[in-house]
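Help!! Second protein's tokens look totally different from the first
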Amino acid sequence: MTNWEPVIGIEVHVELMTSSKMFCGCAVSFGDEPNTNVCPVCLGLPGALPVPNRTAIDWIMAIGLALNCEISERSVFHRKNYFYADLPKNYQISQFDVPVCREGHLDVVVDGETRRIGIERAHMEEDTGKSIHVGVGGRIHAAESTLLDFNRSGVPLVEIVSKPDITSAAEARAYAQELRSLVAELGVSDARLEEGSIRFDANVSVRPAGREEYGTKVEIKNMNSFRSLERAIAHEIERQIEVLESGGVLVQETRHWDEESAVTHSMRTKEGSSDYRYFTEPDLVPMHMDRSWVESIRSGLPELPAARRSRYVEAGLEDGQAGVMSDAPLALRELFDSAIEAGAPARSAANWLTGEVTAWLRRTETDPDALPLSGPQLAELVVMVDDRTVSSSAAKEVLEGVLTGAGGPRDVAESRDLIQISDTSALEAAVDETLAANPDAVANFQAGETKVVGFLVGQVMRATQGKADPKLVNELLTAKLQG
């Protein structure tokens, strides 16, 4: 049996959240009444002329720089000609051979190994309208009719094309997740898969292992989650291998991923670039991105997810914890940095923020930006737990008090009588009384039943109303029992 290897490339469309559309002044707004954000330009009416959105150009350069791309000094728009109901002009203003960004890369981690995925290009274009298929399931094949909403028509759209460097469905998912995190961090898009503001198409082929020639490429569409992306690619790899091993022939086509049946269906044969009859957009002059413009964009880039994860690992977090903390809302990340600066150990601070603090935010439906907790307060709480001033369980009550405005951690702990008894002399009396009151347990310990220590610790905790330091109690009991 032939050993096959997948060859995968990902095309990503990112809707930019500029105030206005790419070539006109209509508002960019998700969820508005259909066909309310339209004008002669984005409806493609005769005589309407496009004017480029400067902010959109700034933002595609920011994406390109974050992806380690070269920024072209000169870039031009083209007309991409095709006929579909949601494309009012019967062409899309896009880019062909002179994109804004080219030759970059994105590093992703899969199973603990870092893989570098090449970026072929990132180019600027406009989005199409939205087709709403009316009928069972909302799918085109079962539609009774189709409605068109042109609010999305003309929204700034960046297409990011990877090189065919991806070798598995899991790697494709990791790439998509990393790219989505990067775009969201830049603040140029909300990057919500469920709203279609970031969309992934996968180009998949297989070839005998070790062969340089590519197999027949199939494009997969309609993957609206990372899970769908991974499942669709895994299925398509298996399907292509089955076709080839049974003596069949693959055709270059576009296939639709059906989430319910977990299979792909043929939609149409795949077009080549010649089918689109690209030519330079006559209504737009070439763009010139001089070095000062590019460097001004570069200087404004935020800390990117990969760099932040590395910083968190250096601060003491494990890789997985660093990833979770890096993906947390900005307000929690800033609180984490502030807590570390105030003296909190990184792991403890991250555990509290991703655990109890996040649970409180969800329970109370509080926005992270409105969290009533400072970095120094979190650091104080963490230190109180670490030095056993309060127990781990009592610390949760302390946190609740701080978050509800009862004061700082120490103030809350003292006012609610939650400070642990850590004075050896004070605890020895309670330990002696417990041993005297439980002679059977002492005898069982002497007979080799060491588990009774846990029972005796519980008795001391009860006698001290839960205020004793359980670790110190355990040490005192064990010493006395063995002595």
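Here's the second one for comparison:
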Amino acid sequence: MPPHRDPVEAGDPADATANAVAALERIAELLEFALEPNYRVKAFRGAADTIRPLESADLVRRVKEGRLRDLPGVGEKTAKVIQEAVAGELPSYLKKLEEEAPVMNEGPGAAIRAALKGDCHAHSDWSDGGSPVHEMARAAQSLGHEYMVLTDHSPRLTVARGLTPERLRKQIDLIDTLNKELAPFRILKGIEVDINEDGTLDQEDELLAELDVVVASVHSKLGGRMPVDEMTARMVEALRNPLMDILGHCTGRKVTGKGRAESPFDAEVVFKTALDHDKAIEINCRPERRDPPKRLMTLALEVGCRFSIDTDAHAPGQLAWQPYGCDRAAEVGIPIERIVNTWDAEQLNDWASLHR
């Protein structure tokens, strides 16, 4: 079952608002998991936010009087979900989505997924994610994670509202505040930093040194637009940098929709550099990425690399994608002890700090 909560059950009418909010949020999570368009997700999250402050008696009265759609952000479909939830029923649309959702955590990677303690690559609405940091953190917590590394984009990726040094400092302060509220769960301070064309990292060194975990990824001249030797040198230079820890979605491929070809590079050279500097290769769980391909995962395994199995989530429901990467890891025989996010937060921090 994908996202984080059990299906909403029939509830006490006194809990009408809570039941309806839970149903709307669960639908949003399932839509996020299925990579449905963001406007559909927003419709259900928006309706949940609208009714959340209402007393149950007020919501029940509005249902009886047919006045739900007078509320801002409540449309025909969301109103029906609310009506059914208030009546103590499992909303029919939610039931349909639950039945269509794939069964997770039962594939070949189930043991790996059970061993994971966190996710090292997740985005919030500070860059190109769709939800606030606290919502992403609570979703990760409800999945059983002990931590989530927040890795919003760096300044160069303007299309994704990459964080300037000033905004990243503000985000660090926010994380400190949220961690007091969420303890013992922890948000680890991180970034998905762009690897520039010359292999340097797109953020101030001083700031990168303050972070717990740094994911570094190539986001430009992808799909063969950079010669093999130049792309190899670019990635090798980044891996040699003591301020990065994990190489994100290394080929940059996309395997659905219009797709995007793999960016060619000398994988053996890159993976040996990762081994020499004790950096991890990300197994990206996004359904449209599935990066790296299995032949490169096998090569990285043979070279001796560490791995990090990450969702690259841009919405709460997408944090449930980890089993996709776990299954692929199991299929090529990656042992649990090679996966850095099977460690607790202190072990992960200790490993990353050795690079600094």
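Reply: Different proteins will give different token patterns, so don't panic. Strands lie at 118-122, 147-150, 186-194, 213-217, 246-247, 280-284, 306-310.
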